[in-house]
């Protein structure tokens, strides 16, 4: 059972090209639509922050401090993920893997580094697992569906 509490794994088929999925994963204005406000750059070593809603139940301040660990354009993005206000508490990694799969893209998410013996990590794992599946990935799909709309293109050029 503790093995299941160390990692969140989610796979999603998206009926969009890898280039389009990559764009949604790496453009700050698009990331803000489906995940959190951020100052992301797809460069290994780039440190950035994401700003979301605090979750007091798990001690999440609402500010994620991250660093880009690996980038392989249109294939892989791995970042560190930790609460910016609690030292190394909730320190983990998130890896997005993109695989072309006719007629679209298979997106795999692995969020790992949870400690099954730490109650805060267990609660965070439960909340984030549901969040990735029920909130974040549906918003990513919605963002991808709207990506070619004139409204979104003009909003992106304004930012």
Tell me what you see in this structure:
It is a single chain. By secondary structure, the chain is α+β, with helices and mostly antiparallel strands. 33% of the residues lie in helices and 33% in strands. It has four helices and seven strands, in the order βααββββββαα. It has helices at residues 18-26, 28-34, 119-146, 150-158; strands spanning 7-14, 37-38, 47-51, 63-72, 76-83, 92-101, 104-112. It has a seven-stranded antiparallel β-sheet with strand order 1-7-6-5-4-3-2. A hairpin with a 3-residue loop joins strand 4 (63-72) and strand 5. Helix 2 (28-34) crosses helix 3 (119-146). The radius of gyration is 16 Å and the shape is globular. The mean pLDDT is 90.
The averaged pLDDT comes out at 90
The proportion of residues forming helix, as a percent range, comes to 25-40%
Summed up, the helix count is: 4
Order of helices and strands: EHHEEEEEEHH
Count of DSSP strands: 7
Strand-residue fraction?
A: 25-35%
Specify the biggest β-sheet.
7 strands, antiparallel
Strand order of the largest sheet: 1-7-6-5-4-3-2
What class do helices, strands and sheet pairing give? alpha+beta
Question: What is the rounded distance between the termini?
Answer: 45 Å
Cα Rg = 16 Å
């Amino acid at each position: 059972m503790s093995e299941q509490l160390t990692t969140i794994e989610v796979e999603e088929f998206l009926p969009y090209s890898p280039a389009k999925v990559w764009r949604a994963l790496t453009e700050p204005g698009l990331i803000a639509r489906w995940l959190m406000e951020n100052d992301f750059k797809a460069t290994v070593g780039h440190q950035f922050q994401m700003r979301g809603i605090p979750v007091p139940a798990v001690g999440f301040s609402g500010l994620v401090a991250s660093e880009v660990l690996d980038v392989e354009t249109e294939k892989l993005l791995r970042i560190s993920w930790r609460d910016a206000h609690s030292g190394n508490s909730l320190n983990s990694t998130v890896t997005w893997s993109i695989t072309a799969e006719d007629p679209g893209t298979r997106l795999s998410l692995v969020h790992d580094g949870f400690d099954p013996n730490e109650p805060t990590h267990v609660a965070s794992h439960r909340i984030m697992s549901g969040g990735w599946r029920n909130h974040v990935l549906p918003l990513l799909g919605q963002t991808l569906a709207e990506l070619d709309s004139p409204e979104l293109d003009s909003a992106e050029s304004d930012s």
